[in-house]
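Provenance and format

Records in this collection were gathered into a single text stream. Each protein contributes a sequence line and a token line. The two records reproduced below are adjacent in the stream.
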Amino acid sequence: MIQLLFSVIFAEMILILTFLFKTPFRKLVILTLDRVKRGSGPLVAKSVAATLFLVLLSSLYSMANIQRRSADAGLVNPTDQVLMARHLLEASLMGFILFLGLMIDRLHHYIRELRLLRKTMEATKKQNRAFEESKIGNSGESKALAEEMATLKKKIELLESECETKSEDAKAAEAAISSLKKQSEELLMEYDRLLEDNQNLRSQLRSLESDAR
């Protein structure tokens, strides 16, 4: 279970990295996500996310039961410690998976919006060039063209501000990804430590059983 969760996290991290660099594989990933989001794709994704969230709640509930049982007994059971650590690791990994899934969805949405904004800006600039190059003798028509150009300039400024906002969101997403990398490495180290503690506890239990015999 834990190995599967780690595999899903690494797959999501690789998918996020493909969004950050402009490569042919990035276009393929975006096209694939576009197709996945059509039809029954969103429903399937929501069902999987809901199932994972329920499993996360189950792990949290098991952790609460272990804590309550230890508090009632007044004694910390080594087996309960191992189970507590395992549930904590599983809950953390599932939380990361849900968070990374949300990041992938938002990055895909922002990339699509940026593409649309760039196309709109290019079309607006072409219209501005056509208006500037054309010479109209009629003063009334010139005034109308000047008003249209002023309106288009305002639209360009608005689009540029939106583009800057999206760029800042992308930078924030990159910072979140680097933070998640560090957290994932810490989790791996914690998992190794827990495995070592588990082995030590098992050896101690075996020695206690042999002494009791």
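Adjacent record:
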Amino acid sequence: MHRELTIENFKCFSEKTKIKLGKISICLGSNSVGKSSVIQACIILRQIYEQAVLFKETQVKEYSVQLNDVYGLQLGDAEHIKSSKNREDICLRVDEYEYNLISDEHSPMEMTVKNRYDVAKMSSSEGLFSKGFYYLNAERMGPRNYQTINSKLVDGCGVYGENTIHLLSMLGPSKVKESKCFGLDENKKVGTFSKQVEYWMDYIIPGIEINADDMTELRISKMSLRQPALDTGFLSPYNFGFGISYVLPIVLTGLLAESGSVFLVENPEAHLHPKGQSHIGYFLAIMALSGVQVIVETHSEHVLNGIRIAALKNAMKPEDISINFFSVSVCGAEAKHKVENIPLNDRMDLEAWPEGFLDQEEEDLKTLRELRRR
């Protein structure tokens, strides 16, 4: 499991910035303060490792890193993502592995990087360098009646959830790791993927049943949904909004992710009611407790609270959870970004509450009181 990520001269992080990591790491803060940059830094480090594996039997030690169209990256020109024009390199470090990325003058949308580490040792450290790697973009696929079956081997839901229906159809009868199984209802004990997905989805969005089928002759996977309470039969996902389509790949990815791997997920709360946001936080904490290192970028206090509830209910340690608050302070024409790690005690209480941290409800209520006095 990774313990620390360091970023320097990358996007808003002009100075060396350290982000503490735990079994589950939460990146919180307002818009455009660096949360997504953490996810992107992890993806670049993963790409470096994949290049190292590709060339491990050769003498090649310098690799090209793509800034666009790999794991959904859309970073544009290398010169645009450097914080300082006076520095040639971007520095990324995870634990003891440090890399300096240099612009390629012949290919502005790529950067070059040298690897001085042993690939076998990197692989044994797991995390970003493990066999499994899972990432779900904030912009996931909305409701679809069907998805195209990829002709290549499908081992994940895809960056946008584009393989979810096919994967659910394929994995249906397979067994889920016991520590990931739904444990909040003693009557829900069937350990197959199809049933565990159903249990967890019902916990997050109650009253929905999912049916997934492959139509291999047409190279498509078809999904339909129904609400048993309404007795309408299975209907098109278009009748059920975005919440189900956005959260289903998160649940499926969490259940299939290998122990020792990393799961990056952006905005798991998207299109969910606050109760569902809390419950997806609970789910992600259980996946982290089962051995998957989870890194979450979110704007939702409900997701954080769901994680804290799971921690108390399942005896997670405070150090298993890393809460990182991203903020920016403006002084004149200069903006300074910082990351503050917020510790938890054994009761899962927050032991620090910086200005601007999850206090909007309090601010709004204060404004309402002031307006009512007029």
